[in-house]
Automatic annotation (TrEMBL), chains A, B:
Alphabetized Pfam families for the sequence: Proteasome
Single GO biological process annotation from the record: proteolysis involved in protein catabolic process
GO cellular component, one term: proteasome core complex
Protein name from the UniProt record: Peptidase
Organism: Defluviicoccus vanus
Length: 247, 247
């Protein structure tokens, strides 16, 4: 499994992904799922991946190979818009699954893969997209300022409670880590390290690219402060009157 | 969809279920999913249901019809143990799906159904079981004091954080309602009213059977106190040092 979150707020974008890949519980490995395509001062594009690792690796490899061409439909750094860049990711995904699906399914496996694509190209706003397994995609809007990939349900409630376009990037980073904490606690196939990339609107360069590994002091502190705080809030709320000890 | 929670703590048992049934978003109805088989002073058995409504209704109807017989393998009130009672539920489930599966699947629908069965029979401890769609089942133990049915993921983290065998039934009730709150907010197909039944160990009778409907004052208060409390805890935790505004 995988867990990735992409967030778009007024201040910019945040991308976070775990690094665990598994094919059964006895085949677990660490693979990064967050890929950066930078052209400092002109654009920054980030792609996060989930799903069949052979499929997503080929899509990323073809994106990297495309950087050698001068074709704006093959080279992410020449794509005219973030929409065109996302179309490129969806198109590569379709090529791979058109070719591989029958072979993979004959072994009972699944080619399904999905992507979060975000970034900014000079002259346009920061944008954030979710590419479905079918290769089509949707764009974030202020009422829905985030997308998730993979094991989405455990970590969704905190995103829903906290995020809105006014949330600062520093708050978004804290919120994303708590969303990962809940997911990691609930699903063994999601785990550290977490790759976090912060992009400040109009900076056209990487703001911060942080890896949160086992033993990370801030991550441990934020998770334990959250856990203690929730227990305190829970205790502070009265029990149901109809469940009193003499009920 | 459905959401049900069954909890076993030292003080007794708690059962809670939503009441929404849907076959597509344009076919939504209210059906109760919590069924009580009482024999005051001798036993109390509770069955909660999730899955294909035709299947679960038939299982419940056959359990109710079985109450007219004097067969301990057909009459829940004569079952010798909670294990036998749960075996009865699993056996009825298998009979129904053996007969219906091919017909239902020919319309692309799913016969899958699952149950939580719990209660106490005089001379034994309170016990709590989860019946899988295959009709086999598992029993709760202190390290895992709860079972869920249906839309389980959104509401699981709070159960994990709060519940242990020492949790009081009043706290369990508060925790269950918060688990429902998170699930209802995330999944349109889970909704009020919530049926809550509290069973005190060794009472051999219903402690409290409460319906939480729209407009329930305590439910509204507990959800808003929880929401406010979480936002306060979130704000009180420092942002990541590497995400400071000058990062």
């Amino acid at each position: 499994m995988t867990y990735c979150v992409g967030v778009k707020v007024n201040e910019g974008l945040l991308f976070a992904s775990d690094s665990r890949t598994n094919a059964g519980v006895d085949s677990v490995a660490t693979y990064h799922k967050l890929f950066v395509f930078p052209q400092p001062g002109e654009r920054l594009i980030v792609v996060m991946t989930a799903g069949n690792l052979a499929v997503t690796q080929e899509v990323i490899t073809r994106l990297q190979q495309g950087l050698q061409t001068d074709d704006p439909f093959s080279n992410l750094l020449l794509a005219r818009t973030m929409f065109d860049a996302t179309m490129m990711v969806g198109g590569l995904l379709r090529r791979v699954i058109d070719r591989d699906r029958a072979y993979v399914q004959s072994f009972g496996a699944d080619v399904s893969s999905s992507f979060i694509v975000g970034g900014q190209i000079a002259g346009d706003e920061p944008r954030l997209f979710l590419v479905y397994p079918a290769g089509n995609f949707i764009e974030s809007e202020p009422a829905t300022p985030y997308f998730q990939l993979g094991e989405t349900k455990y970590g969704k409630p905190i995103l829903e409670r906290i995020l809105n376009p006014q949330t600062t990037l520093a708050q978004v980073a804290k919120c994303a880590l708590l969303s990962f904490d809940g997911t990691i606690k609930a699903n063994l196939s999601v785990d550290l390290p977490i790759d976090v990339l912060i992009y400040k609107a109009n900076s056209l360069s990487v703001g911060r690219h942080q890896e949160i590994s086992n033993g990370d002091r801030y991550f441990a502190d934020v998770c334990s402060a959250w856990s203690d705080g929730l227990l305190h809030v829970f205790d502070s709320i009265p029990n149901p009157p109809w469940a009193a000890d003499d009920a």
